[in-house]
Write a structure and sequence with these properties.
100 residues
């Protein structure tokens, strides 16, 4: 008795797609000082001083602005860091994330 083994090759098409990107947004409020917002932009989002100043003004003038775009996990972590630092300093800054 002999066992016959059959070898079959299966070809599958695998499509690898880039992970979704998420924008982190700061919302303007009347209580969080602009210099504090600038420090968050530099410390957490690694913006240069001039860029953080322009972005903070944009947030103030437009009501909100995208401060960074990342994968979901990174966007969520940076959002949590910014919110935690704001609350620790007694500021009500609102930070949200939305899919790009």
């Amino acid at each position: 008795m002999t066992d016959e083994k059959t070898n079959q090759q299966v070809q599958t098409d695998v499509e690898i797609k880039e992970p979704s990107r998420y924008n982190v947004l700061f919302m303007n409020d009347d209580y969080t000082p602009i210099d504090f917002v600038q420090s968050l932009l530099m410390d957490i989002f690694y913006h240069k001083p001039d860029d953080s100043e322009e972005l903070a003004k944009l947030i103030h003038e437009k009501g909100k602005a995208i401060v960074g775009t990342y994968t979901y996990e990174v966007a969520e972590q940076k959002s949590i860091e910014a919110t935690t630092m704001s609350r620790s300093a007694g500021h009500p800054l609102q930070v949200t994330i939305e899919q790009e």
